Amino acid sequence: MKIGFVFSGQGAQYLGMGHEFYTNSLIFKQFIDLASEVLDFDLPHLLFEENEKLNQTEYTQPAILAMSVAISEMIKEKLNITPSMCAGLSLGEYTALVESGALDFETALKLVRKRGKLMQEAVPTGVGAMLAVMGMERDVIQKVCVEASEVAGVYPANYNMPGQIVIGGYKEGVAKAQELLNEAGAKRLIPLNVSGPFHTPLLKEASDNLEKVLETITFNEMSIPVVTNVTGEVISDREAIRSTLTKQVMSPVYFEDCIRTMISSGVDTFIEIGPGKTLSSFIKKNDRTVKVQHCEDLKTFEKLELLVSGK
């Protein structure tokens, strides 16, 4: 069994995530409480009690990272397993870098909070839009984006899995692309409820400002290979991390390619860590022969325990 950890991205958050672990696992609780100290806000309150901040990017990103790291540490200690490779969806790539040892937990928390704030501020609310496209090939979607960009810029943003690609850009451009995709025979088109057109050139300001922040960060050598969204390949070395994370904010997410790289490297068992099970569905769509289990609560932890024990 060759295990790969994959980490949730923004959009998977929900009120109450991690509550069972917080009340039942000392390891999990220690990491969440440490995150509260580092971030200087009450993370348990954010996660478990009704408030509007959980869906604000500046707070969402460190909350998901903290939960994901806490679950990962719990899995490693209680089940005595470590991953051979790691990847994550957008924000999840930062969690993967923590897992690899390239970033320490405290630095990553502050970094993703700043990243979230920069992303939130990059494009005014209502200017951009994103659209999930089902049942259409990459080359057709890419051509449609080029044509629709004559109205206003629109770009492929997420290559999630075979048959599902998300596009994003200016609202008018996305509307034109939606019209063209309907004409081209798209199986289904789903407008996404997001605060900005992430992973498109509209985030260039956020990328430029994030680069300045990243220049102040010291990265360590990676003890575990991390596959990046930017290329779908393993990050070559410590020196490449800074430029990769700078590009990642405004570059398409090649998650489908990340999974293919991990499978071709021998990973046959994937553990999705963090809120939700979206990545598990993406992985299964890539290859139904691999084993996949997400972990976000006591029930899914028990299922994971059975999987790794071979029962």
From TrEMBL:
Keywords, comma-separated and alphabetical: Acyltransferase, Transferase
Domain Malonyl-CoA:ACP transacylase (MAT) span(s) in chain numbering: 6-311
The reaction(s) this protein catalyses: holo-[ACP] + malonyl-CoA = malonyl-[ACP] + CoA
GO molecular function: [acyl-carrier-protein] S-malonyltransferase activity
EC category: transferase
EC number per UniProt: 2.3.1.39
Family: Belongs to the fabD family.
NCBIfam families the UniProt entry points to: fabD
Listed name of the protein: Malonyl CoA-acyl carrier protein transacylase
Organism: Candidatus Vagococcus giribetii
Species classification: Bacteria, Bacillati, Bacillota, Bacilli, Lactobacillales
